[in-house]
Amino acid sequence: MNHLELFPATRGTILEKEYLRAVRDRVPVEFEVKCEQRWYAVHAYPTEDDGLLAYFLDITQRKETERELQKTSLHLDAGLSAAEIGVWTWDVQADYVVADRTLAFLFGTAGAEATTGLSAELSMLVVIPVDGSGVRRKIAAHPHQSGASRVQD
What we know:
Layout: H1 3-6, H2 14-25, E1 29-35, E2 38-46, E3 52-58, H3 60-83, E4 88-91, E5 96-99, H4 101-106, H5 111-116, E6 118-119, H6 120-124, H7 129-141
Antiparallel strand pairs: 1-2, 2-3, 4-5, 5-6
């Protein structure tokens, strides 16, 4: 008895398509599928006797976490956009800054250039003079620090 005889509801689904591909092409396949209320990562391998060995890993929690992260990211992006707040990351050791498009727009920098990396020296040009000395002192005092920093004078 084969899979389709045991589980006729899978006919025409990704399960059937990928199982047939694995057996026909003699290649392992991996894919994700939702079955009722659960998500599974499926790994299937052709066997020597033209059969198929498959195992399922329940990834429902991971999928729910990914969905929540995506929803949170969309809310953050909407809030940042509405407030016209830009976000940037500065890798001091590598001497480059990556900014989002909003920050690039606010500072009149080419969006593509800002999102792929600007030199830290060039980026300091957009720090207002009153903050610049504090930023430079903080970097000089902690050149290998990672994580978020706050500069206040």
